[in-house]
Structures are given as C-alpha cells and as structure tokens.
Q: What sequence folds into this?
C-alpha cells in the first residue's frame, strides 16, 4: 500500500508515548494508534518533530514503525529528514521494508535559492531511490526555507515519486489556489495537498482545494469531521465545528509549548498513559494547564468529546 | 502628556490612509482618528510597519504626527525604528516636539547575543536622549531577535525612560508571568505591557498580567471591550466576545495579506475612504475578500458591529 | 557623467571623516578625496556601510555628496539602500541632482526566493525612476540574500538602468565566470563587475573577468596597480604585489574591526586628520593597533607606501 | 588517553578518503593518518563537516574511528553534533569505547539567546555523560550561533568535562584575549583553545594566547611549524612562513569549494589515492584547478613541500 496523489482526509501527526522515566511506552503506542483510527484518520505520519524523533535511537525508530504499521491498517508516512543523505537513505529504505507507505522530507534550513531547493530534492531522490513515494514538507516558519509555487511545481514534475505536499506555509491560501491552477492548466502533475500549521487555517484551506489535514491537533476527530462536512458541501456546519475548536487549536499552535499541551490533552482523552516527554522536554506550567482545562470546558459546551 | 508605565487599555496601531493614486488622504486621517477614539482606545501608535511608515517621506511622517496629535487628545506613540541612530534621533526629537507621548524602538534583525541587544538600547537612548519615554518592541517572529525576560529586565533597569513593552513574542504567556514576577520580587521597575501579535492571544495575555493591547485589528472596539470585561472580572463574557472574533483575528494575522484585510474591513466600517495602500502594496484576491466577507457575516451573528 | 557598463578600474568605498567630537570633518573630506584621486581610482562610492552612512543626517548625506562630486571629477556612486522606497527615492533623486553618476542598492535581508529578489529590484526601479543608473550589491555574507547568476541575469535584462554588479559573494569566482559566459552567449546585456569583499580575492577575480574593485582597503593605490598589471598581462607581478598586501587585506576584512583598522591606516597615510568614528563606534584595541603596525612594517619591505 | 585542557599544537581536521565510486577507501585512511603524523600533528579530529560525516552510515563512522584510533597513537577528537541527543549520545559513547580522546559539539543553528546556548550544552552533557571530555565549536559564520566570552565562560565553569574551545569566531582576536584574561582573573577554568577558520588568522591568534590550530588546511606541516616557531619566540620567521602560505590558505577558505581544493592538494601530496567526494559532492572547475596549481607553484618558491 504505497502512498499516491489520491491521498485525502486526515493524516494525524502521531505523538510518541513515553513512560515518565523516559522509556518508550509500547502499550500506549498501540492504544494511541487505535485512538487515531477511531477518530477516523485515513493515515498516520510518524517520526516527525512532534513525534520527538530526534530523541529516538535508530532501533527505536524502526521498532515504532514496525509496531504502528502492523497495527494500523492505514498508510503510514515516516519522517526521514536528516542532516545527511546516508542517514536519510538508511531510514527510508528501512521503514519501506517494514511496510511504510511513503516518507516525508523537509529541506535543511541552510537552503536559500530556488535552484538550491530543487537541487536538494533531486539529491534526496537519488539517495533514497525513485521508487519511494515522498512528501515535500513546506514549513517556512520553522525551517526558514521559502518555496514558491513554481519551485514546488518543478520538484513535482522532476520526480514522479513526489506525490504529496505537506502545506504549512503561512500565509498559504493563495499558494494552494496557485498550485491547483497550475495543475488545471496542465503545468503540474496532480498531487495530494494536506495541511499542517496545527490546522489553524484548515477551514479555508479545504475550500481553496486542499485534500485534508496532516497535523497533530489533539482532536483529530474534529479535523476528520470538518473535512467530511466540507466534502458534503455543509460549509456552515464545517465552520461552526471548526470555530468551536479554534481557541484550543490556536493555543496548541504555540511552538515549544504545543507538544506539552497536545500530550496533556491526549492523556486526558485516554489515548496515552502518560504525557511525559523524553528529555529534553518542554514543560507546561500549572497556569497553562489551567488555561487548557478552561478551554476544554468551554469547548465541551459545543463538542461532547471535550468533556472530561 | 508623556507616556509612563501606567498606560493601559488599547493602543491601536493606526493604519495610514491613502487615496487610490497613492497620495496621503488627510481627510481620512481625521476620520480614522475619530473612529479609533469612538472605539474606546486609550492611545494610538502611528508610523509602525502596519502604518506603511517606510513608504512615507520624512515630511509626511511629521505631518501625520502633527495632525493625529492635534486631533486625538490621547497619548500618541510613534515608531522611530531606523537603520541608523541619526535618523532615529531626528524623528524622535521631531515627533516629541510635535506633542507625541513616546516612541517605539524595534531591535535590528542583526542582533544575536544578550549583550548586543542590551547595548543597542543603550546606544538608542544615548542617541535620542534619556528624556523621551520609549517602548521596547519584542517581536521575534518578524525581527528574528529573541529577548529573554532577563534581557528586558536589564534594559528596563538601565533606562528610566523605558516605560512599556510591546509584547509580541510567540509563545509569550510565560514571559508575561515571569516579567510580572520579576517586578513583584523587586528585581525590575514596573512597566506597562501591551500585547501585539494581532491580538491572537489577548484573552490569556490579560490574565497573565498584561495591561492591554497594542495591535491593529480592525475591531479595536472588541479589544477595548475584552480588556474592560477582564478588568471587571467578567472572564467568561470576555472569552465569549473574544472567541466570536477569533476566526477573523486569526485571518488578519497572515503576514503580507494582513494589512490588505485590515484596510478592507476599515473601509467597510467607514473609517477610511479607500483601502488603497501606497506602492509596493500587498493585494487581497477576490477569493480572500469573499472569505473575509463570510467571516464578517458569521461574526455579525454575535456582534452587530460586524453587520454591514 | 552617468555611470554605464564600461566602468572599470577601482572605485574606492570612501570613508567619512569625523572630528573626535563627532562633527563632520569637511576639510578632511577634501583631503581624502584628493588622496583617492592620487591613488589612481577611477571612481568613488560614498555613503556605504563603511562610510557610516546610517549615522548621518539626511542633510549631511547631501552635503557630503555635493562636496565630493564638486571636487572629485570622477564618477561618484551613492549608496541609497533604505528600509523604504520613499527614502530611497528621495535620496536617489537628490544625489543625482547634485551630479552623482549612479546609485547602489542592496537587497533587504528579508528576501528569500528568486522572485522576491527580482521583484524587489523592479519596485526599486519604479520608485527611483528608470533613468538612474544603478548597481546591484550582491553581498550574501552580510545581507543573507543569495542571488544566483540567473537572478542577476534577469534583473539586468529587466532594467536597462542596471549597469553594474558589486560582486561580493563568497565564494564567487565561478559566479563571475558564469555571468561573463551568459553575456558571451547573448543571454545577458553587458555589465561592469567590480569586486568587494575587501579585495580578498581580487587577484583571481580579475582573471575571471571582473573589471576591477570596489572596496575600501586603505591602499587603493595597490588595488589600482593590481588592476593595471593584470590589464597589461603582467600576471606574476600583479600577484607579487597583491600577495605582499594580503596579510593586511585579510586583517582589514574582519567585520566590526575593519573600519577602525581602515581609518587608522588612512590617518597614518595622512588622508584624514582623525581616525574617529561617529558613535556608535567600533574600537581598535592597543593590541590590534600593534598588530596593524607590525603588518605595515612587514609590508614596507615590499611596498614603500607602507613605510611611515 | 583522554583529552584535557593542556592540549596544544595542531589537531588536523581529517578528510575522509573515498574511491571514485563512493566506497570508503580504507587503504587511504591509513595513508592519510600516517601523512598527518609525519606532518607533526599532535592530534586528529575526525567526522567533522570537512570529513563528510553526514554522508557516512553509522557503521562507517564507527569503523573509521576504530581504524584511525588504532593507527594514530595521538588523541582523536570525534565530531558528534547531531539533530537529536539520542544520536549524539550513541555516537559519543560508541567512539569513546573505541578509544577516542574526546568529542566535539556544535550548537544547532536555531539557538539565539545566551540562556539557550548555555542550556543546550547542559542538555548535551546530560545526554552523553559528564565523563566524556568535549570541545565547544564556536563557528558563527556557518552555524549562525553567536557566543560571547561570558557564555563560553559559563559553559566551561558549569562542566568540568569541557576542556577545549574550537575557536572560529570571526573576527575573534579580542575574544581570545578576553578568555585568557578571564582565566587569569580567576573567573574561568583553564581550557585549550585551538583555532579553525582554515587558519586564516592563526599568525595572530597564537600571539593572543591560542594553543594551536584545529583546521583542515592541506599543509598541516606548515601549521605545525608556525606553532613551533611562535613557541620558540621566532615571530618574524613564523609570519614569513605563514604569509607564504596565506594566498592558498585564503583560497581554501571558500565554503563549498574548500573541501574539493583540499582533497585535490592532499592527492597531489600523495596522502590519498583519489580526491573523490561521496555524493552530493562539491566540484572544482578546471579554472579553479589551474588557479590552485598556480598558487602551489608560487608557494614552492618559498616552501619545497609545495613543489610537485
């Protein structure tokens, strides 16, 4: 089951569950996988930044991949961004052998010019092989690499194995419109566009032509509902649900704090046993916890899933 | 009427009105000033990035200051960030002579270390004189300069003329808590903290100890209401109002697009005659206008001020 | 006498002389201008970073331009980089009215993509007018903006008023070769290429096709000699002279310290009355002065001009 | 044989030899190790950026370490910078078990504030253990992280296992003076300071108090001679030799091109069988090769080791 350009719906960016002492919590890996499936996701993305991938030993990364692939029954995308192509190749070939559906590659922060970005993806494809479907991660806010629509278009047209864009440029609505127009004009192969940025603009991103979301918001069921409502043409209902969640979506979007909030809510929802992060961990203050609790209590008035 | 650390409420970041041909629209300057006052602002900040300051001739900058100061009757803060201290000094002395209440200074993007930031503000104070009250603009997302609480503390303690922090670090809730704690512990003079970032976190920033908002959201009356409700201890009502506006607040927070959206809404509200920007202008597509209209129509269900 | 693509030789980046109390030293402005002419420069560039331009009042900038243009009798290029197009336009039109030959424009550090860079120069030309010859400053080390040869080619072809490249990319030898090849292949109009970076690679830059140097090294006479020797085909002599100066060229290339070293040497050579910088000034320690003196004494063995 | 603060002389940054088809050239690993020893180095640094470490599989990294440690008989420092602490810990513990003398850690480019830098090294020490001697790599030009002397002082004082600074700030002469003064004033433990930056300022860095060089210049024998001459108080001779090499030192200092030049010269000197880099490789044009050959022929007039 390899990833292709028809992918849509919600690919949850999966958290990685740890015990309070820092050991991997393999029981919670299963529980969390089941939780995501019950939320209606169409796929999972593991070993991303939000999955604390840089804190994992290589064997742990492969072990998690094996466990999630074996359990999920949906396509699994694995983050393989690395400072060198040797490590990228090892991990990419390794996880594909374990049954992953594709890999995601972010550009290193040092890239500046259009040619550098296009060249980097060419080198990455040469390293991992052109038989592995891959996702471009377009995340200038964190990565400081800015890709124009024409750069993305060139990468897509240069590499048939490029099947998806993880869109998290900000602002990025016009970018989706331009990429979709380029496809309609016959200038670019069709690709799947799933949106990140914590879902902060998902309401309009879908209306601009995105196929869904790829993000780690702790209510993936809301994301799935919004995608479904939009597909069914129930625009106002989609926005009503989205707007009810927006205060929390926005709160989770705080870099550094976000993962702590996310694990805190996932634990409350029973998806993981502990909200512990492996060191070095970001922390959530008591004030922040109280703020999240308050947001959840307000959300619960509209969405029972937030009632604890 | 000089700015001091007791400043609170809402300082609107004022737009600069232009005719469609690029000339300054002085009639709208008055109309917009009146609009802000009717919205309940306690002050105004002019000649910031959102005021298209870099597109103004020096004489225009002084003319606008003269006009707004003469009309407003509230404290006016003027942005004087400049690539050199000569230009900063000229503008700062010039606008204070015209009756401005204080100036705002952003650090240049090249600064990296704590000492460099502290040193830069010392040089700025030496340049403009220590008799001009000034505001630190702490905006890492755009300026790439990161100030820790202890750096801000040192700047405040080094310079009695430092009376306010424009807080737009993100995430920044813990920073407000730390600065307030430093004051309580006797480690820092008291300062006013007004929050930017388009108001995206204003709800909780106030609860953490901020004194109000300094931002350009096109409904400064909402910002003023939220500040007032929080001051009166009506927390739930404050959040209800804030949350109703959040989808639009978030939409306006898109860099580049934001000013176009803001002027579009201000024009709809009758505050300016034209939403034109002086060149080079950011543009708002027809799709984006339709999205803003949709957000306004949804907002109008809760807040009549958004009904047109 | 407007700048055009046939410019060659040495354009010295002129220092700005100050009295120890910070006032402009107008007597030394004349003396320094004469010194540069005696050194054999073919032009001068004033109001650059090394000219402490950001510390000058607008009237001072115009006064210096008037004085240098009136005295020099060679083409004067004026740096007009500014945070906004209004200030850029004012300064550019002002200095051209005073007889400047052209202006130099550096891209702002926020630019990232090829399109952003090309678009910025289009906006700049629209602002200043397409009748003013301009120089692209390509200085990624300081400005963080990276321009590929094809980006430079587009800017040149888009704007007939683009007549020169100040080349200070590093490494940049292949870039010169590529630009010259693009011209030979009929893909780009001819432009003048003068090299900066303190002259650190001037020996080979000339051999790759550069027309000369635009830098502030305190021995512009050496730069002029090296250009002349290369033009006359006396390669080994050119390198012998260059290599003798290289230890000092390299020492001057230290950012922050460089200007202090440069003014110290210019004062020793009698070109300016004081090595004072206007505040905020970089300083040269006693140890650094002793190091420069040592380098000069060593240099004097090969080049009498360094004997004091 | 663990690294400590008394380290001095020259630690060559070792290249990694490959066959033209990209396989590791283990015969040349021995030959190159012997070459360095014959050049008079006191230690070696392997798996740095110049060693193409990111292109190596983890097993290859350990194999090279084992081979070089077994052969060299001098202290080996291993670069263990990594995007995550798990990988850093694995590699650090692994190479120490193989007999490495210490590890080198560069800060990730995202760090900005003093506290972030100090905190990062605390986390790194916690990850690898406080029994492994480590080197701070202070290289702002490439890493964009700026460390003040007081930040370095804090890291040194916080961690007894911090024994060396790889100094490649630029400009950095005053920094060495300040760090040595801090030690003399009893404010900082003593550390070894070895200088990088391709050796471009080694002449004066030694006079400011550095203990030697850690860089990859293709004539480590020259570096060793300069260090020795300075130690013996033969200042003029040290500068004479250094200055003869400076044109080539400077040429090698071009980022991207530098490694290709270095391997080209090492191959000429017989230290490696092929100048091939593993993909993605930087290339050296025919023009650049001819320039290097010309520099070598000029150098050979003063230093027979450059005659081929």
A:
């Amino acid at each position: 089951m390899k990833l292709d350009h028809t992918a849509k719906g919600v690919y949850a960016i999966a958290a990685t569950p740890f015990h309070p002492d820092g050991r991997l919590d393999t029981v919670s890996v299963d529980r969390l996988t089941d939780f995501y499936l019950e939320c209606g996701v169409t796929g999972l993305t593991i070993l991303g930044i939000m999955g604390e991938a840089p804190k994992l030993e290589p064997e742990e990364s492969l072990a998690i991949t094996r466990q999630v692939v074996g359990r999920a029954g949906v396509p699994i995308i694995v983050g393989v961004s690395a400072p060198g192509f040797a490590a990228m190749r090892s991990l990419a070939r390794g996880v594909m052998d374990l049954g992953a559906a594709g890999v995601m590659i972010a550009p290193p922060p040092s890239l500046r010019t259009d040619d550098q970005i296009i060249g980097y993806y060419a080198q990455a494809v040469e390293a991992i092989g052109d038989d592995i479907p891959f996702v471009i991660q377009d995340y200038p806010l964190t990565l400081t690499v800015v890709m124009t629509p024409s750069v993305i278009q060139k990468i897509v047209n240069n590499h048939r194995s490029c099947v998806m864009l993880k869109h998290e440029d900000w602002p990025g609505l016009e970018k989706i419109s331009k990429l979709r127009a380029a496809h309609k004009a016959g200038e670019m192969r069709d690709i799947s566009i799933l949106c990140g940025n914590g879902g902060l603009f998902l309401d309009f991103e879908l209306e601009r032509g995105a196929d869904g979301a790829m993000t780690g918001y702790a209510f993936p069921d809301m994301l799935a509902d919004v995608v479904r409502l939009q597909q069914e043409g129930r625009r106002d209902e989609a926005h009503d649900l989205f707007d009810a969640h927006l205060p929390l979506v926005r709160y989770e979007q705080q870099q550094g704090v976000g993962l702590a909030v996310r694990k805190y809510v996932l634990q409350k929802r029973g998806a993981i046993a502990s909200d512990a992060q492996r060191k070095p961990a970001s922390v959530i203050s008591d004030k922040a916890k109280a703020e999240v609790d308050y947001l959840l209590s307000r959300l619960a008035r509209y969405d029972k899933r937030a009632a604890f």
